[in-house]
Amino acid sequence: MGSRGQITEMLNLLEKDLKDLEIAFEQYFLGLEKRSPEQARQKLTLRMRKMISHYIPQTDLRFRLQSITSRFNSYCGYWDRVLRQIDEGKYERHTSRIQRFAQTKSSEQDANQTGASVDPIDTLYQELVTAHQRCKLRPPNRDQVISFLAKQEEAIKKRFGDKQIDFVVVTETGKPKIRVRAKR
Question: Where are the domains of the chain?
């Protein structure tokens, strides 16, 4: 079939094309594209079949090709299922997330433009809720967050003294946490 370098280059190209095809399908599912990228899918399918039919003596390259093929087959099953749901009229586009994100951004910009003071606890709580939703966890209620910060107030004052501090929401090991850091 070719040298190790040629095979590696072809596998890199297959991975890149698979990623591009994945993006194209997601754009179609979101309604950004009007046509399904079926031609690109057919071309990639043919290229995959040609690669699989050739003998590759290097085990690591054979394994890499098999993993790319497996990922492609998984995506094909997912794409076929979503296309079938679209045909049946059962597929709901997830534009609500995009609209919700745009609304929160516009409301933040409006608050910044009007000069209204935003309560830092409110923004911290909103960031914490968003992080919990991203991790698919149940977010705490606002009172729990306020009581947690009140309990930690003395420890924070011991650690940072009179310095101004910022609260930051980070996700560690799949769980959102509130971190305290000194302002610069």
Answer: 4-88, 96-182
